[in-house]
Amino acid sequence: MATQRMAVSVASPCCSDCTERAPLLLASWKQRAQQLRQEAFVFYFALKHPGMPWYARLVAACSVGYLFSPIQLIPSFLPVIGFSDDVLVLFLGAKLLRRLTPPDVLTECRVLADTLHARRTAHVRTTATLCAAVVITVLWLLAAVAGTGALMSLLR
Predict the structure, then answer these.
(1) More confident residue, 34 or 99
(2) Which pLDDT belongs to residue 7?
(3) Cα–Cα distance list, 101 to 41, 45, 95, 144, 147 (Å)
């Protein structure tokens, strides 16, 4: 009887509010990820903009360079802690880059990023892209079949 009650208590949610908030939490994470992606495109366009000051480009280069550097404050192979310094450097670099970028350059690059996003979401699949996808898929399948046949002949 005790195990039966325990199984029921584990299977049931801790509160009705948890089941209601879970989809909202997932939606907010998706929205934040989309905003982060959009901000990355804004900074990409800003770094290519001729009106961007050299010191702002230096901040961006140092932030990205730290991520790819083999020498870090906390090694990245540590599960959670190793990536915390990377996130901190990116966050501080983006915040500083936002302050160093001239407002007119930032608004122009936001418009460019918005038009890129609109073009990507409204992208209609043409027959050329569909044909290319079919050809690539067929080539991969043929390579898999040929590789399997070669492996089977080696094993016999």
Answers:
(1) 99
(2) 44
(3) 14, 11, 10, 50, 53
Q: Is residue 99 located within the same domain as residue 134?
A: no
| Helices 103-121 & 16-48 angle (0-180, nearest 10) | 120
Nearest residue to 109 (alpha-carbon basis) of 55, 38, 59, 4? 38
Share of the chain above pLDDT 70, in %: 79
Q: What proportions of the chain, in percent to the nearest 5, are helix, strand and coil?
A: 80, 0, 20
Same-domain pairing of 102 and 144: no
57-66, 70-79, 133-142: least confidently modelled range: 70-79
The residue range of the domain holding 154 is 125-156
Distance between first and last Cα of the chain: 57
Q: How many domains does the chain have?
A: 2
Round to whole Å and give the CA distance between 102 and 146. 57
Residues 97 and 60 sit within 8 Å (Cβ to Cβ) = yes
Q: Are 47 and 57 in contact (CB under 8 A)?
A: yes
Is residue 32 located within the same domain as residue 94? yes
6-19 pLDDT, tens digit each: 444 444 455 556 56
